[in-house]
Amino acid sequence: MSTAVDRVYVARLAGTPVFDPIGDAVGRVRDVVVVVRRTGGQPPTAVGLVVEVPGRRRVFMPLTRVTSISPGQVICTGVVNLRRFKARQGESLAIAELFERSVKLKEDRSTAYIEDIAIEQDKLKTWRVTKLYVRRAERRRGVLGFSRRGESLVVDADQVTGLSVRDKNQGAALVIEAFQDHKPADLAAALMEMAPSRSAEIAAALDDERLADVLEELPEEDQITLLSTLKSERAADVLEAMDPDDAADLLGDLPAAKAAALLELMEPEEARNVEQLLGYEDDTAGGLMTTEPVLVGPETSVATCLALVRKQELAPALASMVFVVRPPLETPTGRYIGMVHIQRLLREPPHDPIGNFVDPAIAPLHPDDRLSNVARRMAAYDILALPVVSDDHRLVGAVSIDDVLDHLLPSDWREHMDEDEPAAGGARG
């Protein structure tokens, strides 16, 4: 392979566009896959790139299919497997797992932290990790005890120890920052690629709201695994931050004693909403619904309703509909009156009361309605959310299309969502 540069630093490579031989964009480099051997004394080997292709899918591209690396572009040849990347045993992600790892410098046994990694080709065209850009640990100076940032330097990869050892104190800020502007599903996909211990470190560093959003995008098994890494008090806080229906689904998959202990730690009101959902079967409207739709009284103005559906934390499907009820304006409500689609709100005078525009043609669901009936009703009405009303005509929640799809698809659909895509490549090599 010919390259325009002999030594490539991973931090500079991240974000670089990838092109095929005729100049069409393939995606962007997001990380480098490295094999670090614990024994044998051989330097770490870079075996491939993690490339983000359209749709924000992250796939594996072997370095054997990269024909050129130069400032601003990577050229590849052959075909690329579009199956979502998952690190194999012994593989590490340079940016996500090795950056900020602490190592010992052989020359003086001092501690340093990895800030960048350089890879180069040897005579056999194998990419080796040859250099590390590291920062020495901070040192205190003077009688006042002030500290300064440690010295930064480039060292040979064989002049450090501890590169293959997982670091309990390794910072997760770099990974979190890289996904700051991404959707929770993107960070969830990245966590699925990492070793369990590293994903646990990232989860520990996320705030409760962000971690809750990420958990909602993970398969059930991964949700349970990640939640189990948290202390019980933290786990309860994260469950409170989740949508009640997602929290109920997760608690329903835990052992009964563990679920009961977490519910006991949750705020009473949040726990009540989740316990209500746990009382329904999974494949019913009651089991599918959320207890936090947009609720308003009939006298509420159109302008106020529009302001309510603009809230950023509101899921798009739930933001498409306003449910009109008699007080109290929390589930279970007073008498259910009806629903109004946001498109109708946009056409009406802003100061008119919402009760004037209720759609009488859409009948609500009952908590015991089966999933198949819920799906048919949504398709028939061509609608994104439907109310769920009890026998005494109280609104107890709403079912949104995303929850219906989540239950209609196989339980592991997130792990295989790309397998039916037309492949731009063959098997991972």
Q: Could you walk me through the main structural features you see in this protein, from its secondary elements to its overall organization?
A:
The model is unreliable at 142-147 and 418-427 (pLDDT under 50). β6 (66-70) and β7 form a beta hairpin. It is built from 17 helices and 20 strands. The longest helix is centred in the middle third of the chain and has 11 residues, at 268-278. The strands form 4 sheets. Strands 1, 2, 3, 4, 5, 6, 7, 8, 9, 10, 11, 14 and 15 form a 13-stranded mixed sheet that branches. Strands 16-17-18 form a 3-stranded mixed sheet. Strands 12-13 form a two-stranded antiparallel sheet. The radius of gyration is 26 Å and the shape is elongated. The two termini are 16 Å apart. It is α+β, with helices and mostly antiparallel strands. It has 3 domains: 1-170, SH3 type barrels (Roll), CATH 2.30.30.240; 177-279, MgtE N-terminal domain-like (MgtE N-terminal fold), CATH 1.25.60.10; 295-408, CBS-domain (Roll).
- Give the structural class: alpha+beta
CATH superfamily of the largest domain: PRC-barrel domain
What is the CATH top level name of the largest domain? Answer: Mainly Beta
DSSP summary: helix tally: 17
Largest sheet: 13 strands, mixed
Oligomer: single chain
| Rough outline | elongated
Terminal Cα span: 16 Å
| Relative helix content | 25-40%
Nearest-integer average pLDDT = 86
Radius of gyration: 26 Å
Domains, number: 3
Give the DSSP E fraction (strand runs of 2 or more residues).
15-25%
